[in-house]
Amino acid sequence: MELTPRESALFISEHSDHVKINRSAIPAVAQKLFDNLKSGVFGSSWDDHPMHPKAVGPSTVNWYVVLCFYCDRLGIVWADVEIFLIDSLNFSFWTDENIPKYVVTFRGTPHTGYMALCAAINRALEEGKNLLDANVLASLTLDDARSIFRSDDPNVEIPLLETRLQIMREHASTLLSDYSGCFTKCIEACHGSAAKLLKLVCEKFPSFSDKAVYKGRNVTFYKRGQILIADLWLAFKGESYGHFDDIDSLTAFADYRVPQVLAYFGVLHYDDELMQKLLKKEHLESGSVWEVEIRGACLEAVELIVQKTRELFAEAGDERTRCNSILADNFLWLYRRQFASEVEECMPMHRTRCIYY
Q1: Among candidates 209, 152, 242, which has minimal Cα distance to 355?
Q2: Active site residues
Q3: Which residues form the signal peptide (predicted)?
Q4: What is the mean pLDDT of residues 188-192?
């Protein structure tokens, strides 16, 4: 029997050997989140990210699922295969030491990592490549992919290029065979349930099936599947294709950046063995005890931060401001991005090369 991401987080954090949650550090981060949600300093709106579609509709849905990256304003209007396209490709952008970063310049601005991916998709659309058509995605060749995701440096390739191509083709083929080429059909089949949509996505599109075995239990994280649903909720402001009665059932999204900033804040504590691996920039295998414990503790820590933040809103008599794991994750991810140099100097991220994050 599989544990849900929330159940997995609790089980892993209770049995972890290498990663512990420092509960005494929770209130300070909760206060930061409280202040952010009240002021909007870091922006929790999906619209705040310039490479996200500014016009929402069925075509917005299909775009956001493969790339799901938070980019700075480019103000492009997207279509419906877009959301699905974005979150299908939202994984593994880091590079090793002494290896040039993947950089894509779009409209005069260079972008790295996730944003480079978004820039590449935007560029391809402007060049007339109809990546919003599932038929086109299903028939892409390796040469097509190299052209779409080409870097400013011709000697640098986006990580896992061939794997990304395979995922695009597989996802497009499933959409064409089962959902008339449109991800909105998946959403409609789930009748406003985030839990049902998560189950459908992970079953029908296996690259979203992010799970592991930890101390004899089948644990799940479903990072990309959950962030897909969260992105729909944010993009559509909880309405239409973004309406989910159980949106608060989602956890945070266990990637390599949110644990890093939680460790920076002192919420996560790594033992000496794990810390040495991170400092040496060793690769942690996907599903290894170290990687699973980092991700599980990350999710549970965010749950605790959300609980404490809700208490702060209750004490303030504020019953209107929403706080859930999606918004907490968004805040933490953006905080790490804004203070990247400071965080990097103090706390290394863990390095796992995989398709799940």
Answers
A1: 209
A2: 255
A3: none
A4: 97
